[in-house]
């Protein structure tokens, strides 16, 4: 039986890195840890994982926020299931958990974006998890 629990320590964050790195392939472990620490401290970022026994099979990072666009909401920053455990509903379990977390903490919506090359994610979010597509997220990298 799977369980979901929050990852709060550097040791737990390190344990999640091999799975998170399947999504965030551009990050090395040191940068990942620095970013999780900064986001946790500055942005109220939460990292949760699904475990099958002692094995971490999926991980999500999200943060609560309030914007004029969506009001009080939870932004799903990261969501990934270990490659060998995909299509077994672990991502669905995490999204349902986030929805419940949002309701329990007074947030009225859950938002996320998915990169255009992840076509299978579109089907998952819109058909299986009943998210509506409400726009696109645009990004511009500013060189220092």
From TrEMBL:
UniProt cross-references to InterPro entries, sorted A to Z: Acyl_CoA_acyltransferase, GNAT_dom
UniProt domain N-acetyltransferase: residue ranges: 2-144
Keyword Transferase on entry: yes
Domain of life: Bacteria
Sections of the chain in a coiled coil: none
A family per Pfam: Acetyltransf_1
The keyword Transferase appears for this protein: yes
Keywords tagged on the record: Transferase
MF term (GO), any: acyltransferase activity, transferring groups other than amino-acyl groups
The name this protein goes by in its record: Acetyltransferase (GNAT) domain-containing protein
Species of origin: Sporolactobacillus nakayamae
